Amino acid sequence: MSDVETLKRNFVLMAAVSFGMMIVAAAFAVAHFAFGVSWAVWGFVGFLAAGFVSQLWFIRGLIRTNKGA
Fold first, then answer.
1. Residues 13-63 pLDDT 10s
2. What is the DSSP letter of 68?
3. How many domains is the chain partitioned into structurally?
4. Nearest one of 46, 44, 48 to 29, comparing CA atoms
5. Measured distance CA(69)–CA(64) in Å, rounded
6. Domain span at residue 42?
7. Of 46, 50, 56, 69, which residue is least crowded by CB atoms under 10 Å?
8. Is 0.90 surpassed by the pTM of this model?
9. How far is CA 63 from CA 37, 44, 57, in A?
């Protein structure tokens, strides 16, 4: 697999994971604010952080790809 194909695959994977985490985080936010479930704020924070981690994983891959060239 070439570098461009690998980067494209990693980008699509990061976008899908980040979108999924955003949807689950939004569900926890609705549970917290609309239904008053107090512990749901921790699920919101956790899934939001997991989405950011997936983006950091992609950026780390970009840095590693450019170092060896």
1. 999 999 999 999 999 999 999 999 999 999 999 999 999 999 999 999 888
2. T
3. 1
4. 44
5. 9
6. 3-67
7. 69
8. no
9. 40, 29, 10
